[in-house]
Amino acid sequence: MTVAQEISSVVPRPSIALPRGWARRLGRGVGLPLGFALLMILAWEVVCRAAHMSPAILPPPSAVWDVLSQNSGILVEQAIPTAYETAISFALASVLGVVLAVAITFSAWVREALYPNIVMFQLIPKIALAPLFIIWLGVGPSSTITVAVFITFFPVVVSTATGLVSAKPEVLQLCRSLTASEWQIFYLARFPYAMPYIFAGMKVGATMAMIGVVVGEFITAQQGLGYIIMFASAAGETATVLAAVVMLCAIGLVLFAVVALGELIVRRWYGGETPVSGVV
Fold it and tell me: Which residues contact 157 (CB under 8 A, 6 or more apart)?
């Protein structure tokens, strides 16, 4: 039996069977938040109509729906670059975050030199760097994606680094007793136990990527939903602003669902246990 086979015998193995009661849990996970959202929308509509709220201040959901239905072509057209930039920013930030986390986890020199600077850089308001990105990269998707990446990568770094040190000590001791290399320990022990942390960071990163792209579009873009929001708010078209926000929510939900689906697939592949210890 090889070292990899010995290590694999103590790490949870792949499982493709769905857990019992998954349909009921899925129904509750979708039905409850959807029902609450519909209830809040109904209350919003009633309050706006009862208080005779000015549409310029707070339009009712029916007015927002009218904008969505009448201008769906324009909104979808403007949502495409926003969705593209969000996906690219999230992918780049995830890769950058995981690579940095691996580096600061496996090298004390790198951790002591790099991690404090990463934290310090994260404390800088990214909007303050946007003019520099415009000077360096010009107005357009490049500067927008750069702003989003620098906003997004930090939670991925922290979560991944936490996960990589969360493997059970007895598993690591067994790996070393079997003369496993550091790469084998990483791939067969540390990485599986880090998966819940990695996906937790990616879920936060998915929302941060959306925020970063919209902030970038506020400053640099001449297209996208962020540009629509700026243009509509300047014209006092609050319903259009909210319609663009609805489109942003839809994009964010799709990206979050993709990450959650990836987590489900990977977790079912690696199997059962969720680590709960380990800090950076």
Answer: 97, 100, 101, 104, 118, 201
Four-residue CA torsion sign, 58, 61, 63, 69: positive
Q: What is the pLDDT of residues 205-245, one digit of tens each?
A: 999 999 889 988 887 767 899 989 988 988 889 999 999 99
pTM: 0.81
pLDDT value of residue 68: 94
Cβ distance 7 to 186 under 8 Å? no
DSSP string across 229-268: HHHHHHTT-HHHHHHHHHHHHHHHHHHHHHHHHHHHHHHH
The CATH H-level superfamily of 67-270 is MetI-like (1.10.3720.10)
Average pLDDT along the chain: 82
Task: Tell me the three state secondary structure of residue 247.
Answer: helix
**Residue type at position 43:** A
User: Cα separation of 180 and 274, whole Å?
Assistant: 23
Q: Are 155 and 138 in contact (CB under 8 A)?
A: no
Can you tell me the distance from the alpha carbon of 170 to that of 180, in angstroms, rounded to the nearest whole number? 14
Q: Where are the domains of the chain?
A: 67-270
